[in-house]
Amino acid sequence: MNSSTNAKSYAKVVENGVQAVEEVNQLRSNGYVYDDIFVLAHDGDRSERIAETADADQIGLKEEGMFDALANLFRSRGDELRAKITSMGFTEAEAQFYEKELDLGKVLVIAKKA
């Protein structure tokens, strides 16, 4: 299970955008780069604003693949978030936990080495 292809992403739930920016900066100082760091919030616009402020990425086509990215057009936001989280290597149960945290207004910072 130590194979890099099975390497699990790092994830941390934070309370707000300010903490998300601090976490992204900490990850940068630990060697992660722009393409390795992702920010998710329940509100898509909020995800985008925090990602821009933190100079982090959003989970998109490259990470999800064409099928999931297209399927997300027809999913609820909760389903879409869980699909994005599982596309980063997390289990469905972990994705459900993180999505519930996002539902409470928290922000999820994910880091995954390419």
From TrEMBL:
This is General stress protein. It holds the Pfam family YflT. Residues 11-105 form the General stress protein 17M-like domain. It comes from Paenibacillus dendrobii. InterPro entries: GSP17M-like_dom. It comes from the Bacteria.
